[in-house]
Amino acid sequence: MAARGRTHTVGVGMIKGPERVYRSFFLDSTRWDDYEPRPGDIVVCTPPKAGTTWTQRIVSVLVFGDVGLPGPLGEVSPWLDGTFTPRGEVLRLLGAQRHRRFLKSHLPLDGLPFHSEVSYLVVARDPRDTAMSAHHHARGLNWLADLPPHGPPGTAAQPRVPEDAREFWRAYFTRGAFPWETNGWPYNSPTAHALSWWEWRREPNVCLLHYQELRDDLDGQMRRVAAFLGLAVDERRWPELVRACTFGRMRSERRRLLAGGVSGSALASFEFFHKGRNGQWREVAAEAELALYRAAVEPLPADLRDWLTRSA
C-alpha cells in the first residue's frame, strides 16, 4: 500500500518535494527519488487516458522540429513512474539523452518533486471520457491479471476489470486505488490529479491543457505549447508537424511510434489510441451512473469543475 508522510529533501531549484507515495501495479512514485533534473526538462503529466501519448507526440515534433523520432516514443520520452520498464533502464535512458528531455508521468503534483527549472505540461479531460477510455484500455489488458505482480514489492497484481461498461463506470467513480482517493479505480483519480495542479496553475513553469481544446484547435494549442516551452516554430514545416499530431495519423503510424526498444511491441499491436473522441459515455451512462459521476466531481472548486467537464 502507498504510504503518507514521506520525507524528501528539497534541493536546489526544487520548489516543493512530494507529499505522498503512490505505489501500485502500474505506478511507483519513488522512482523520482533518483531523478536529476536538467534545466529545460519537460514533464508531460496526466491522469491515465487523458491524452498522454498525444501530448508526448506534440512535444516530440516541437522539440525536434520534425516528424521523425530517434527511437520509439517510449524511449525518447520515458515513463519514469511506470512499473512496466525496469527502474535502472529508464534512468539509463534519461542519462544518455542529449536532446531536450521530455518525460511522462501519471502522478498528481503531491507525488512529484516540483522543480523551478522544469516545465510541466498538465493535461486534463472530462472524467466521463477518461472512464470510457480507461475501461477500453484496462479491459484490453485483462490478461495481465493472470500474471505474477510486476509492480513494486508488496503491491498486488493488476486487477481484472469488468467487461460491462456500466459496471466499470460504477467502480471507477466510487473506488480509489489509494486510500486518500475516492475515484479512478484501477488507476489513480482524474479529479485528484486535476485539483493538485489547479492550485499551482499560475506558476510560470506550469501549463494546463484540456483534451477537448486539443481536439477543437490542435494548431492553436500546439502553438500555445511551443510558446510555453520557448520553442521556435518553423512556419514552412508547421502544417506537416500539425498533421503528424492528428489522431488519424498517430493511429496509422502507431507501430513506428511505439514499437521496439524496452517497451516492446505490445503497445503498438494493442489498439492503444482507440477512437480518441469524447462523448461516448452518453451511450453507457444512465441517470444512476451520472449521479455517481456528479458526486465524484462535486468536491472540486466550481471553476475547476466547469473547466474540467467540458466534454463535447
Automatic annotation (TrEMBL):
Tagged with keyword Transferase: yes
Pfam families in UniProt: Sulfotransfer_1
Transmembrane segments: none
Domain Sulfotransferase: 40-283
Keywords assigned: Transferase
GO MF term (any one): sulfotransferase activity
InterPro entries registered for this protein in UniProt: P-loop_NTPase, Sulfotransferase_dom
Family: Belongs to the sulfotransferase 1 family.
Name assigned to this protein: Sulfotransferase domain-containing protein
Natural source organism: Streptomyces hoynatensis
